[in-house]
Every structure is written in C-alpha cells, then in structure tokens.
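Q: For a teaching session next week I want to show students how multiple molecules come together into a single three-dimensional assembly. I've collected the sequence lines for a complex. Could you give me the predicted structure tokens for the whole thing so I can convert them for display?
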Amino acid sequence: MTISKQNIEQIALLARLRLSEEEINQYTEQLNSILDCIDLLEQIDTTDVKPTAHGVELFNVLREDEVEPSLPREKALINAPETEHGFFKVPKIV
Amino acid sequence: MSYQDKYEMVCGVETHVELATKTKIFCGCTTEFGGEQNTHVCPVCLGLPGTLPVLNREAVNLAIKAGLALNCEIAEFTKFDRKNYFYPDLSKNYQTSQYDLPICKNGRLEIVVNGESKTIGITRAHMEEDAGKLVHSGESITTSDSSYVDYNRAGVPLLEIVSEPDMRTVDEVIAYLQELVQILDYAGVSDCKMEQGSVRFDVNVSLRPLGSRELGTRTEIKNLNSFTAVRRCLEYETERQAEVLNEGEKVIQETRTWDESQGVTLSLRTKEEAHDYRYFPEADLVPLKIDREWVERIRATLPELPAAKRERLKTLGLSVYEAGVLTSSKAMADYFDQVMQKYADAKIVANWIMGDLSALLKANNRSFEDCPVKPYQLADMLKLLKKGEISGKIAKTVLEEIYTSGKDPAVIVKEKGLVQISDQDALEKIITEVLVQNPKSVADYKGGKEKAFGFLVGQVMKATKGKANPELVNKILKEKL
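A: Of course. Below is the structure for the complete assembly, covering every listed component.
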C-alpha cells in the first residue's frame, strides 16, 4: 500500500494540521517508508493468532461507583487560554 | 398530497440514554444534573495529559441490564475504542466509545400500532461517554464571536442503542421510542428524564418508491429530545425528501439538525467534512470479559417489564386501554400494584387511579412518583366506599382531602362528619320533606317524566350534603311515589 499526496492532505485536514508543500512531500515519503516496514509483518502467517485488543494481558479493571471530590473550578480552568463566567471560552462553534 | 401516496418511509433510530450511575463512566465525578458550570470535573474527564480512565463497574452492570431487557446477546468479550473528531464538547478530541465489539447486540422489542404487533430489531447497544455542553455567548448564535463550554456532562455514562431500519411509519417510530423508554424506565437503567436530556434520539430516514425493496439515500437528524420533536421532524423531513425526489433530484446523504422554532431540518455538515472517525482501540482501558455468571446475576435483578405487566393486568380483567395507561410509567404501575395488595378489585382501583387521582396529580403538576395519597390510603378509602360508609360522591371529596392534608380517610370522614346516611328512618323523613316541597316534580314523574326522578334524588342529596346512601334514596323514593 502506498500513500499519495492526496492522502496526506486528507489526513492533515482531519488532524487540523496546516502543511506546506515541502512538508507534504516530506511526510508522503516518510509515511510510505513506515508502511513499507509494516508490510514486512504481513509476511508472517497469523492464521491461528487471535486479534489483539490490548498490549497487556489484563482484563476487567473496574472501579466502584463512589463519588470522589471534583476539582475546584479555578483549578479546572487554570490552563485554559480564555475563560468567562466559569466557562471555557472557545472560538465560535456553529 | 402526502409523501405516502408515492413513497414508503424507512427509519431507524439511535437512542442515547444516560445510565443511572452516581459517578461518571471513567472517573469519580458526580453525574448529578445541574450544578454550577465546570464544578463536576476532574483531570480525567477534562482529558488532561497523563491521566488514566478507570471503568465504572455499575455502568457495565446497567448496560448488561438494559441489554437483557431488550433481549440482546451480551458479549463475552468487549472493549473500548476511540472515535476521533474535533469539537470542543469533548476536550480530548476523541470520544471513548465502542466500535466493533459492543457490549450488547441482536436484540428486539415488540410494538403495537393500530392493534397490530410488530418486532423492531435492535442491532446493537454500546457504552460511551457523554460530551460536555456548548453555550453560545452574546446576544445570539449569529452575533456572538465565541462559545462557552461546560464539561459537567462530559464523561456521564451513555448507552447508545441502535435499532434496525425496521420502521415504516411515523407512528411506528413513536411506538418504538415509547416502548424503548418505558423498558429502560422499568429496568431502572436510567432516570429517563427527557426534559433533562437523559434520553436523546438521532433518526435515520429515507424514502423509496412504494413497492421497491431497495433502500433510498438517507439523512440523519441528530439530537432530538422529545417524542413530539421526533414526530414533527419526521413529518417535515419525509415531505422534504419527497419534494426533492418528485423534482427528479437526489437526496444528499448528510447530517441535519432540527430547528424547533422554525419547524424545519437544516443541513449540518458539508460533504468535504464527511465524517471519518478513524476508530482505533483505546489503549488506556483494558478489555472486559463478561462471564455468564455475571450476566445471570444481573438477570436476576430485572423487574417485571412493561409487556409482561400489561399482559398480567389484562388477566385481572382490565381492558387493553386500561392496561396501557396504567403501565405507561413504572411509578403508576407500581402504585396500582401497591393499592391492589390492600384492595383487590382491579376495575375499581384502575378507575380511581386513572380518573380522579390522575386528574388531581395533573392539576397540581405532579406524578405518581411523588403522589401525596399513599397507596394504602386509597385502598382504605375504597374499603369505606364498599362498606357503604361513604357515598361515591363523598369519596371524591375524601380523596381530595387526603391529597391536601395527608390524613387517613377514616380520620377525615370522622372529622368532617362525612359518614353516609344509611339510616332508613332519617332518610324517610328527609325524603318526605323533599316531596312536599316539590309537588310539581312529583306530578311530572307520575305523569311519566323519568327526568323528574333524577331531580328529586338530587334534592335529597342537596338536603343531606351528599351524604345520603344513594341506593337507599332510590329505593325509598320509588316506594313513596
């Protein structure tokens, strides 16, 4: 599988990245070499291997339904670029 | 001209229901509704770097319970995935959801429309986190240059229930939604408070020429929060699609929004941004293995569901209509059962609950959940009525009095002197007086005017302030005339 320049532009759009022409060429090349590397894995016979859902062999890590204190609002908002009336303020969203 | 003359509607619904846990799905913040903005948040539900979600056991229990109530298969192995999208209602830029291995699938429920039963398939039901709320600042959406975000709701556990595209009329859609919400209410998996957004619907709808078996191009209308909104929206959208098709054009597959004030659906997304959510497994959460013992433990906690309850009420001699009304909310159905334990005449209990008591609650904007008349009080009052200690008319007064004062019926009857007059001699005396005072009516009755009899009964009731035993009055009057 090869990745085209159009693929890179689409991925950049979905990731909200603004790329220059130069960067698009660079990433096209780099992502293709990563995919070539992954293609190597395709050569392994995985007929009897179950799909992996998680890298760690661990299941059912659960917590009980007990309320814990939330953050004070000042702390919750402290890293926000803009706040108003206790809200996070963001550019207008339609 | 209606779309139905030429087309058949095909509709499926995605229902988002907030699960009734005390805390959020991945952190210990409260799920309580309301609360000052951004006060029910923590590093996990704000998606701060370095935090790890931990799944709430009760959310899983409730998802299993909902699945069982909807006749679903419960997965033995299930996991979470990230659904990626940029929108500030989630601070992480992805929603933790379930993609290819949902917790529940292949369910169904029965609806009845115009006396005909139909099975609606449930494709799947999966767990996910709710998003925060956007508030638009400034005078109006169009003039403001910014939006406000409140993350209190972000991370509240949701179950998204996806139906098959099995519905063919708006009435079927509404019947499906009513039955679904009723089942979820009965099962106790959600508080189902529609006005607080605990249940929200996305509808997928398309038209196809009558007789065609192929599916037409569909549109999805998101975030409807009442049955009325779904009905109005579908009535509008079907006509809109019919117009497009009638003009020889094609329906565009897109997401639309329902504008309540204008009563129209509006296009929400342009084609370029067609969603590509790039789902991938959520590495921050380990998978779940649900053994069958766990499922059976949950099954044992399932209460009687609406369909079973309606059937049982019918065996008690109630009509389909009465059984339907009494089971329309779990609170009302439970109330009926509790009264029946003390006074086992289904017809009479049903009449009082559906009639006078419902009217009282409605007039005071209350529901059976917080009914001031306790079930035993209604039963006690019905016993007094049956024994003839109070008349039917007085019973209504007693009921109102229980409603406002909370006192027991026997106390009210005693305090207010409402005991029915069943004393033959006392009544005869009163009736004689009434006859003397109303010679014209007496003559009318004897002349064949049946109506005059009713008037005379009314006069006796008036003289006794409604306390006369009506049967006895009838009997004595007939004898005397």
